[in-house]
Specification:
Elements: H1 5-27, E1 41-51, E2 55-69, E3 72-85, E4 91-105, E5 112-124, E6 129-143, E7 147-154, E8 157-160, E9 171-174, E10 177-185
Antiparallel strand pairs: 1-2, 1-10, 2-3, 3-4, 4-5, 5-6, 6-7, 6-8, 7-10, 8-9
Length: about 190
């Protein structure tokens, strides 16, 4: 029997549709922890505002991640910051960081995870580029069918010429930040 082109296309549509329906049915299984399974994608970010009498800061941090294996994610974390010191000119800086992380399920239902990651990337403030190394630990809390709330602590380490004791010397600055992010997993 010889298959015509329209018959082949129709058969391919039926097969692909059947595989998609089977995958959707698997994803609806409450015992199936879709969030940290291999192939899952996570898209979202964080927004932070902080102020003191000397400084006002807004941080926007879009991110995208992909689980390359169960519980192992590789993410691209970006950050755009606008700082307005009381006695100086406002500055805007940005960074791009690649962060591998491990997500350990803490519940049988796989809705609560402890995670740790180590990001490495580059930051730029308009005048200076620096190397950024950012260890981060926190929790992933699934909310609803695809939302993930992520409170985390991070320790940004910036290494570059502007961080040294003089403008021409390389040095390091270490900080601490607490952040809360919201993402969608699919």
């Amino acid at each position: 029997m010889r298959w015509t082109l329209p018959a082949r296309v129709a058969m391919a549509i039926v097969l692909v549709g059947g595989m998609g329906a089977a995958r959707a049915q698997e994803a609806e299984d409450p015992d199936d922890g879709v969030y940290s399974d291999e192939g899952s994608v996570e898209v979202g970010g964080s927004l932070a505002v902080s102020w003191t009498k000397d400084l006002f800061a807004v941080h926007l941090g879009p991110s995208v991640g992909w689980f390359v294996r169960d519980n192992v994610e590789v993410s691209v974390l970006t950050r755009l910051s606008h700082l307005r010191p009381a006695a100086a000119v406002a500055t805007t800086s940005g960074s791009v960081v690649l962060e591998p992380s491990f997500h350990l399920p803490l519940s049988e239902a796989r809705q609560v995870f402890l995670f740790g990651g180590l990001g490495v990337g580059v930051g730029y403030d308009g005048d200076h580029a620096d190397l950024e190394v950012i260890p981060r630990v926190g929790m992933n809390l699934e909310i609803g069918r695809s939302g993930v709330l992520t409170p985390a602590a991070r320790v940004p380490i910036q290494i570059g010429r502007h961080a040294g004791p003089a403008d021409d010397e390389v040095g390091a600055e270490v900080g601490f930040a607490f952040e809360v992010g919201m993402t969608t997993a699919f």
